Amino acid sequence: MKKILFVASEGVPFIKTGGLADVVGSLPKCIDKENFDVRVFLPKYTCISQEMKEKMRYRMNFYMGFNWKNAYVGIFEANIDGITYYFIDNEGYFSGMKPYCDNPIWEIEKYAFFCKAVLSALPLLDFRPDLIHCHDWQTGLIPVYLHERFAGGDFYRGIKSVMTIHNIKFQGKWNVKDVKQITGLSDYFFAPDKLEAYKDANLLKGGLVFADAITTVSKTYAEEIKTPFYGEGLDGLMNARAHDLRGIVNGIDYDVFNPETDNLIAQKYNAVNFRKEKVKNKLKLQEELGLDKDPGTMMIGIVSRLTDQKGFDLIAYIMDELLYNDKVQIVVLGTGEEKYENMFRHFDWKYGNKVSANIYYSEALSHKIYAASDAFLMPSLFEPCGLSQLMSLRYGTVPIVRETGGLKDTVEPYNEYESTGTGFSFSNYNAHEMLRTIRYAERIYYDKKREWNKIIDRGMAADFSWYASAKQYEEMYNWLIG
Ligand code: ADP
Ligand code: GLC
Hints:
binds alpha-D-glucopyranose, binds adenosine-5'-diphosphate, globular
């Protein structure tokens, strides 16, 4: 039995701010249980729901030297769907209303503490992983520490590490002096071929330099991050490590995201009866959100973090033109940058019967939007993989996306001559190119309903469960562990 440890800053069903949590919560369950024992480490944030906290039991505590202090480390454990989860407890670091905050140096201290605590806890838990699978910058110090203070001990010798990039934009950067003090790493590590990048210390870079292999969450993004536009300053390193870098596309949990069994939606449906049943979700949502109740109006859904990454400046640019002229409804669920929250609030005020802006986080409403909408808009500037478009495909909701990263790999553009494709896409980051694509989708929706339904047929038949991608992770684990 090979032992794999996932380490991440968020994971469903405990704590989620975005797609990382979906991946960490669903991939371990899909790794072959006959050959792999996969466990997961997360921080025990005080903002985890009471319901989920009640599923944890206290295991032990110890004190660890960290940042010139003797820091308390508590360990909790939970078992969900056959997966063992461990949690690092320290309320000094993991309290607050949300997992993350806007203070970079505090974030770095918090996750440096987390990384060191995870590695220190392993011998006490008597769990020696053959491989540690790290996710995003928050866990970048794990491969580094494995080559540094933990390298000497028998317990840690030979533990492999993998670094998965879910978003190369977030790197955990701060000045070398402070990061040196916090991490306790020597000068040796703060050189341009190790943690240093453009004079700053960079924790993601540390992970990428010291990990035995690197993955990211789609094939196209794996290529994109080797270029200056997408590489966020690390494209040189990505090229240097190109042989150790692979793109493995994300899947979604087909048990949770299943319109046939989903208790969060008003009317269940499947790939056979969606023509009749799916629209009942739209009618119910129109009623709930105070939109014009009309089964025939094309509803476009958006469920997203409201950040520049997701292409909201394009949407802002054409909203008036679209809403003034076209027969569409826009339903938004999201939180994030204030300018985008206010932008959607403004259009909700201006076009109340056509726009519904829901500026909060809600698992339940997200499922209702995936089920109710006819189309799903995701014009991202960059998108490592994207899960929302996969959820849309699963719910028979036709994605309209920009051809970047995982969106390009998972949405096949509609071709009316060959009757192929699962969605609509455009290539340049241009508001009117997006608008033309939305209008093309409208034309098919309104004038060629049979064609539209065939797009849905193909989308619902596409398989974005974890099955194929989990196999690729297994292959990589086997190859690295030997
Ligand atoms: P990212 O990880 O960049 O945010 P993904 O498409 O990979 O983008 O994943 C986003 C996940 O977060 C999806 O599961 C989506 O449904 C969910 N999500 C985003 N915003 C909200 C929200 N306000 N309420 C509920 N779920 C949300
Ligand atoms: C990141 C990316 C998103 C990806 C998710 C899970 O948040 O922005 O594209 O789907 O991670 O890998």
